[in-house]
Design brief:
Blueprint lengths: L1 H23 L4 H4 L4 E10 L5 E4 L2 E4 L5 E4 L3 E11 L13 E11 L15 E9 L6 E8 L20 E14 L4 E13 L5
Parallel strand pairs: 2-10
Antiparallel strand pairs: 1-5, 3-4, 5-8, 6-7, 6-9, 9-10
């Protein structure tokens, strides 16, 4: 019986000490709290319109009169705005502003044929650097959506000269990654239709 009471008294002492220590600990809100900023993707389009028609081969004439394929990347434009999640908060600070530093592009097809390098271009990561201030209106930023080298690799290289499947229509998923002024991670995602083919040159 004596050992039983000693063991229980020791357990109570440990529990009391744990509660006291927890009460003295200050939560690190910068590490544990989620960001108070919500990112709205207001615009996602190509430089020339709402969709992208990506030409996999642009014929150019060299000095000997021979026509060769030239390759150009295709750019997209994203428009974002930042708002406070807590609409009762009347003021904002730099801690709520978001800086985006990278993005990832992934291509998919509606028919489910999504093997990179066979059915769609390979996904890739890109660097960017732009600031979206909270409650300050939209910010637009250009980014590379289809890289030069993607047009030198299957399946896009197979479309040159009206080969392969002639055309490939894909959905580009673009996810941007950044952090708010307190260092808390935040991301935003948008989508864009992309049509690949060896289109007629002017």
């Amino acid at each position: 019986m004596t050992s039983f009471f000693k063991a229980n008294a020791f357990a109570v002492l440990l529990a009391t000490a744990a509660v006291q220590l927890a009460g003295c600990t200050t939560p690190d809100t910068l590490e544990q709290d989620t960001t108070n900023t919500f990112i709205v993707v207001e615009l996602m389009q190509g430089e020339d319109g709402t969709e992208i028609f990506s030409d996999v081969c642009v014929l150019t004439e060299d000095e000997t009169g021979e026509f060769l394929c030239s390759f150009f990347n295709d750019n997209g434009i994203v428009g974002m705005s930042a708002v406070l999640k807590n609409q009762n908060q009347l003021t904002s600070s730099f801690l709520n502003d978001v800086t985006f530093t990278s993005y990832r592009v992934t291509f998919t097809r509606a028919d489910g044929r999504n093997t990179p390098g066979v059915d769609v271009p390979y996904p890739f990561d890109g660097a960017t650097n732009f600031l979206v201030r909270v409650n300050a209106g939209p910010v637009s930023q250009a980014f590379v959506l289809v890289r030069h080298q993607a047009k030198l690799e299957p399946p896009l290289s197979n479309l040159q000269g009206l080969g392969g499947a002639l055309f490939i229509s894909a959905l580009a998923e673009i996810e941007f990654f950044g952090r708010d002024g307190a260092g808390r991670p935040i991301s935003a995602k948008g989508f864009l239709n992309v049509h690949f083919g060896d289109f007629a040159d002017e």
